[in-house]
């Protein structure tokens, strides 16, 4: 069966750690060779690590792994375990006296699903690395998506399950663009083509409340009851075309359009929406297409991954 997930691009491995004591976990993306990366943070309540290193004007031009984790700010500790895994294998940015692993990370809030003192730690990140494989990415309520929920504007008791989703395109030229998204939004999730609601806030009878319609009608006038920084959709897109940090930053920027097509509302003050973009290049594809085409494909891949993330999970929560 054809692999239509992030690992369809050669040189990428993905590992999940799913906590058994409560719904939470982390997801690690490893690169067989250092990858150039960019990032775009759109949400108003982000939780990130090493994203400044990816700025186009800054020195480091290689990334060795990317971590996506639940657990809110506590979950950033998962990256420490990934650094240890890479250090043990002498993988990192060579500074002469040592090789320093560059491991950007982003987290989402899932502390309302069970005991909030349990979250992905360094051991969880290390174990996700050990589980990493180039097999098709497992989707649904696994890894960082284990405790994900969507449609929380009417309260967590009315929400649906979120989850991890992945999708990949391969063009006749051999160009590949793929996405992995952990869907944990304030808003509803809509089908990227039909705009039908796939998951989201539910009314007392179990039907979808349609948050966008409720906001337009004036039934919802403020988000104030929501705890700050309590949601967030995070992920990454990858291409097999050689790109620079500025070009990948633009791809990440355009990839957020995929969130806008499927999450309503999106990029709120209560979401920390963050997307990374990486190049795991096939040198033969240099110049095969331009940044704008890759960004457009990245947005489509993100939209498909969002839909797959909630359709692969069990909901309502």
Automatic annotation (TrEMBL):
InterPro entries: ArgJ-like_dom_sf, Peptidase_S58_DmpA. Pfam families: Peptidase_S58. It comes from the Bacteria. Gene3D superfamilies: L-amino peptidase D-ALA esterase/amidase. Belongs to the peptidase S58 family. This is P1 family peptidase. It comes from Chloracidobacterium validum.
């Amino acid at each position: 069966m054809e692999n239509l997930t992030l690992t369809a691009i050669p040189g990428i491995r993905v590992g999940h750690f799913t906590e058994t004591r409560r719904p939470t976990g982390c997801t690690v993306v490893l690169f067989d060779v250092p990858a150039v990366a960019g990032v775009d943070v759109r949400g108003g309540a982000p939780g990130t690590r090493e994203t400044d290193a990816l700025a186009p004007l800054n020195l480091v031009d290689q990334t060795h792994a990317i971590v996506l984790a639940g657990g809110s700010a506590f979950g950033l500790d998962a990256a420490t375990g990934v650094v240890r895994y890479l250090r043990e294998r002498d993988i990192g940015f060579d500074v002469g006296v040592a090789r320093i692993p560059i491991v950007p990370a982003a987290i989402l809030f899932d502390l309302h699903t069970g005991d909030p003192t349990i979250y992905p730690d360094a051991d969880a990140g290390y174990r996700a690395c050990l589980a990493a494989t180039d097999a098709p990415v497992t989707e649904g309520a696994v890894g960082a998506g284990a405790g994900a929920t969507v449609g929380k504007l009417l309260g967590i008791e009315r929400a649906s399950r979120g989850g991890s989703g992945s999708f990949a395109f391969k063009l006749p030229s051999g160009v590949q663009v793929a996405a992995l998204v952990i869907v944990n939004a304030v808003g509803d999730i809509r089908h990227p083509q039909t705009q039908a609601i796939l998951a989201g806030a539910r009314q007392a009878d179990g039907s979808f409340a349609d948050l966008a319609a409720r906001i337009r009608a004036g039934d919802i006038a403020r988000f104030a009851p929501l705890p700050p920084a309590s949601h967030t959709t995070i992920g990454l897109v990858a291409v097999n075309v050689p790109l620079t940090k500025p070009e990948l930053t633009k791809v990440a920027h355009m990839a957020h359009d995929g969130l806008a097509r499927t999450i309503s509302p999106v990029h709120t003050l209560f979401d920390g929406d963050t997307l990374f973009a990486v190049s795991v290049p096939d040198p033969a594809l240099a110049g095969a297409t331009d940044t704008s085409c890759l960004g457009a494909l990245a947005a489509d891949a993100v939209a498909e991954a969002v839909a797959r993330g909630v359709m692969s999970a069990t909901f309502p929560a």
